[in-house]
């Protein structure tokens, strides 16, 4: 059907309509986790937009290409696309595109263990979102701040940011909720509030749309982490395996690697050192990019924990 829509757009010779149809055709592959095909379709759109000098559409495609690279843990590629996107955003003065640029800046800074930069950029994303008047963008900006503060070790402020994000969303925007809810659950768990962690993890899993492969996996993994902390190790194991299986075969490699990391914590707590080491090795392969400093540090910290158990 999308190919038919693109053919119809092509018949009109309307460059804007054709470019939009090309981007929409790419997006379906994003939601399915078919990230190689997603990138291929975007590259086709990028070439078309450059050929016809379509700056606005070009900006959107560069933003998507940066997101594509980031979720595959290809952070240097993501940074390259972000720099091109920022240049166009500054030239156009588009507040929406400047807001999108801040989102990419936060994610890359977190991956590279530059949490102070991430917190600063998240606050700037909040200010831009407030100026734009979008509840969804504001909720996601608070989510960015919550993530940045979590990795900075300021757990109470992280919790408050995620709560602000949930309050910002329009209740009808169900698709926006799960990623904020599971992150809030993670923060509650780090604070030792297992009851609230369970409430948010269960809410996140309940609110996710079944076709959203990415959030089905992330919310399931967080519920697994909560169940592990509660000592329900069999339930936790089943949930971790479900989450990992959902992402294997997709291009969501960064999320897969992050879940392997949390799964390793579950295995370490259960005294399963050899299996934990295997999970950490799988994560290490995924996070080989030079800008993945945070996760590589976390992997090394866990491997050091395993040294006495495997000596």
Can you offer a commentary on this structure?
With 311 residues, this protein is mainly α. Among the domains are: 1-93, Tetratricopeptide repeat domain (Serine Threonine Protein Phosphatase 5, Tetratricopeptide repeat); 94-172, Serine Threonine Protein Phosphatase 5, Tetratricopeptide repeat (Alpha Horseshoe), CATH 1.25.40.10. Helix content is 83%, strand content 0%. It contains 16 helices and no strands. α4 (55-71) packs antiparallel against α5 and α10 (177-190) runs parallel beside α12. The longest helix is centred in the N-terminal third of the chain and has 18 residues, at 15-32. The model is unreliable at 4-11 (pLDDT under 50).
Low-confidence stretches: 4-11
At the first level of CATH, the class of the domain at 1-93 is Mainly Alpha
User: CATH architecture of the domain at 1-93, please?
Assistant: Alpha Horseshoe
Give the H and E element order: HHHHHHHHHHHHHHHH
Number of strands: 0
The chain-level structural class is: mainly alpha
Average pLDDT for all residues:
92
**How large is the radius of gyration?**
20 Å
Shape: globular
CA(first)-CA(last) distance: 59 Å
Task: Give me the secondary-structure topology.
Elements: H1 2-12, H2 15-32, H3 35-51, H4 55-71, H5 75-92, H6 95-111, H7 115-132, H8 135-152, H9 155-168, H10 177-190, H11 194-207, H12 213-229, H13 233-247, H14 253-269, H15 273-286, H16 293-310
Helix pairs in contact: 1-2, 2-3, 3-4, 4-5, 4-6, 5-6, 6-7, 6-8, 7-8, 8-9, 8-10, 9-10, 10-11, 10-12, 11-12, 12-13, 12-14, 13-14, 14-15, 14-16, 15-16
């Amino acid at each position: 059907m999308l190919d038919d829509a693109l053919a119809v757009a092509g018949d009109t010779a309307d460059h804007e309509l054709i470019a939009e149809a090309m981007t929409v055709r790419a997006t379906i592959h994003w939601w399915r986790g078919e990230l190689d095909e997603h990138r291929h379709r975007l590259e086709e759109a990028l070439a078309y937009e450059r050929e016809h000098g379509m700056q606005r559409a070009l900006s959107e495609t560069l933003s998507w290409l940066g997101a594509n690279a980031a979720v595959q843990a290809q952070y240097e590629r993501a940074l390259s696309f972000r720099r091109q996107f920022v240049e166009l955003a500054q030239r156009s003065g588009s507040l929406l595109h400047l807001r999108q640029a801040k989102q990419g800046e936060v994610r890359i800074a977190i991956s590279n263990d530059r949490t102070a930069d991430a917190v600063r950029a998240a606050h700037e994303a909040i200010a831009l979102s407030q100026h734009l008047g979008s509840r969804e963008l504001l909720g996601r900006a608070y989510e960015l701040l919550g993530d940045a503060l979590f990795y900075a070790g300021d757990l109470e402020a992280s919790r408050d940011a995620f709560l602000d994000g949930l309050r910002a969303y329009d209740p009808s925007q169900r698709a926006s909720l799960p990623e904020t809810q599971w992150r809030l659950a993670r923060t509650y768990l780090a604070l030792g509030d297992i009851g609230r962690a369970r409430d948010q993890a269960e809410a996140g899993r309940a609110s996710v749309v079944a076709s959203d492969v990415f959030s089905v996996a992330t919310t399931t993994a967080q519920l697994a982490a909560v169940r592990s902390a509660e000592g329900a190790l069999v339930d936790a194991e089943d949930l971790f395996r479900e989450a990992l299986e959902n992402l294997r075969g997709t291009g969501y490699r960064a999320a897969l690697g992050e879940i392997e990391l949390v799964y390793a914590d579950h295995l370490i707590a259960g005294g399963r050192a050899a299996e934990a080491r295997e999970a950490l090795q799988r994560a290490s392969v995924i996070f080989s990019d030079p800008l993945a400093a945070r996760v590589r540090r976390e992997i090394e910290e866990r491997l050091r924990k395993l040294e006495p158990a495997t000596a």
